[in-house]
């Protein structure tokens, strides 16, 4: 029986919707039927399935599994856990794809799916193909099987494989998200002193929202690091594929700053390697990669885009400003906040300096955090086209890798359409507070020319 997805569910990197409005069990079932058909037509037979800690995830997971089974697929259910645990399962088990039921960092009533096929991200046109298949009921029939696989301990052990780091005093904030049980296991496996916050999985997110790219969500972590005089603290988003870091001085290290630290040991081992960073990344990071003898590659924002680009060019390391960090040197190439925490410990040890000292060495630039501004879904891409056309007509220095990144004497600014929300996303970085103000004013004027008022950023 054919099924039509709400068009807003079919995003660029994954599938996301609002439970009860644009997403329900019928959608999960139809996804299983479509993805299972694609796997079988590609010569495969097995799919790993996991889910995060949101209240709606177990029901969506059950419907998804039923759809996969009806398409003749063998399903390995790994249960509740972070998205990188699903990626790990897809990499090491005898399967041909993987699906994680997850709403990532979005509000509690949101949910969705992240997909992998044949060890590569499944996104963009592939996700649109799922919608077309469901709309026509273009599905294979079959009778698959279901097997339960407990992989958490194996995954945690893999995170610390080859660990050569020192013992630090660290706070860990899981935000009541799906990373909690793995954080508890990691604390047992790592040397040092570990203070755990909110590792109980709770889809109500009672303490704070699990999104470390929002400064206010790091308040509890900062307080513990300061109170107990710890070396640093780490936090994770709702599905554990992103990391946030607070140093001993209480400063937040954004994803691009973490990448700037991690890149040095990687380039020591792989001189001249290409390092991929998204368009929101600080100029400082690209300059640092060059200074360390690497080849900086600016690429589109989005975990699927970064992973795919790294695979295309053989890059050992990549990152995004929002805290997605990707390791393909002695890992599998996917984004994993938990593994990023382990690698940060190892990097600080190898470089012989604390996380705080490593942050001290990075230049203090004047930049905005990621700014997100509401624009109707049906309007956001049109606004970007209008802005792009005006910038090109005016002869400005514009990089169009993803949205527009404009370089001026004052610094640079970025405007792009979010592929996960009805938002435009902006960021600016200037050489001084005055330069930054000039750049932000330029963004505001570009939006005003398309009758969009910048207003106050939203979560």
UniProtKB/TrEMBL annotation:
Cofactor or coenzyme needed: Mg(2+)
Gene3D superfamilies assigned: Alpha-D-Glucose-1,6-Bisphosphate, subunit A, domain 3, Alpha-D-phosphohexomutase, C-terminal domain
Database matches in InterPro entries: A-D-PHexomutase_a/b/a-I, A-D-PHexomutase_a/b/a-I/II/III, A-D-PHexomutase_a/b/a-II, A-D-PHexomutase_a/b/a-III, A-D-PHexomutase_C, A-D-PHexomutase_C_sf, A-D-PHexomutase_CS, Alpha-D-phosphohexomutase_SF
Keyword Repeat: no
UniProt GO molecular function: intramolecular phosphotransferase activity; magnesium ion binding
Domain Alpha-D-phosphohexomutase alpha/beta/alpha residue range list: 10-125, 155-250, 254-364
Keyword field contains Metal-binding: yes
Limits of the Alpha-D-phosphohexomutase C-terminal domain: 370-443
Keyword tags: Isomerase, Magnesium, Metal-binding, Phosphoprotein
GO terms under biological process: carbohydrate metabolic process
Family to which this protein belongs: Belongs to the phosphohexose mutase family.
Official protein name in the record: Phosphomannomutase
Source species of the chain: Sphingobium ummariense RL-3
């Amino acid at each position: 029986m054919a099924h039509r997805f709400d068009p807003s569910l079919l995003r660029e990197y994954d599938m996301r919707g609002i439970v009860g409005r644009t997403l329900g069990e019928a959608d999960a079932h139809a996804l299983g039927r479509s993805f299972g058909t694609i796997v079988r037509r590609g010569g495969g037979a097995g799919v790993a399935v996991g889910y995060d800690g949101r209240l709606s995830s177990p029901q969506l997971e059950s419907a998804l599994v039923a759809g996969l089974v009806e398409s003749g697929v063998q399903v390995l259910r790994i249960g509740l856990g972070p998205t990188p645990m699903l990626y790990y399962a897809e990499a090491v088990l005898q399967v041909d794809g993987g699906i994680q039921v997850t709403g990532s960092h979005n509000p509690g009533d949101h949910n969705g799916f992240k997909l992998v096929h044949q060890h590569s991200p499944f996104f963009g046109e592939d996700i649109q193909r799922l919608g077309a298949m469901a709309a026509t009921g273009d599905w294979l029939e079959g009778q698959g099987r279901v097997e339960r696989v407990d992989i958490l301990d194996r995954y945690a052990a893999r995170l610390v494989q080859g660990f050569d780091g020192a013992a630090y005093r660290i706070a860990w904030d899981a935000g009541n998200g799906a990373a909690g049980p793995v954080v508890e296991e990691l604390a047992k496996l790592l040397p040092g002193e570990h203070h755990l916050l909110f590792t109980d999985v709770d889809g109500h997110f009672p303490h704070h929202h699990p999104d470390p790219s929002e400064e206010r969500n790091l308040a509890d972590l900062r307080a513990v690091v300061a109170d107990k005089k710890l070396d640093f603290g780490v936090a994770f988003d709702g599905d554990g594929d992103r990391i946030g870091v607070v140093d001993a001085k209480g400063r937040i290290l954004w994803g691009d700053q973490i990448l700037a630290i991690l890149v040095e040991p990687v380039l020591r081992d792989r001189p001249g390697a290409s390092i991929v960073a998204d368009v929101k990344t600080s100029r400082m990071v690209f300059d640092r990669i060059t200074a360390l003898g690497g080849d900086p590659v600016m690429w589109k924002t989005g975990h699927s885009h970064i992973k795919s680009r790294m695979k295309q060019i053989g890059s050992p390391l990549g990152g995004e400003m929002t805290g997605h960090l990707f390791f393909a040197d002695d890992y599998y190439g996917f984004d994993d906040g938990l593994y990023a925490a382990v690698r940060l410990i190892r990097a600080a040890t190898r470089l012989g300096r604390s996380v705080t000292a490593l942050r001290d060495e990075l230049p203090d630039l004047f930049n905005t955090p990621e700014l997100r501004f509401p624009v109707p879904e049906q309007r956001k891409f049109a606004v970007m086209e209008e802005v792009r056309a005006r910038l090109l007509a005016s002869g400005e220095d514009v990089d169009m890798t993803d949205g527009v990144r404009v370089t001026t004497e004052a610094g640079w600014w970025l405007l792009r359409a979010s592929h996960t929300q009805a938002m435009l996303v902006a960021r600016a970085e200037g050489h001084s507070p005055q330069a930054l103000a000039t750049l932000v004013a330029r963004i505001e004027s570009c939006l005003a020319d398309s009758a969009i008022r910048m207003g106050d950023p939203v979560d």
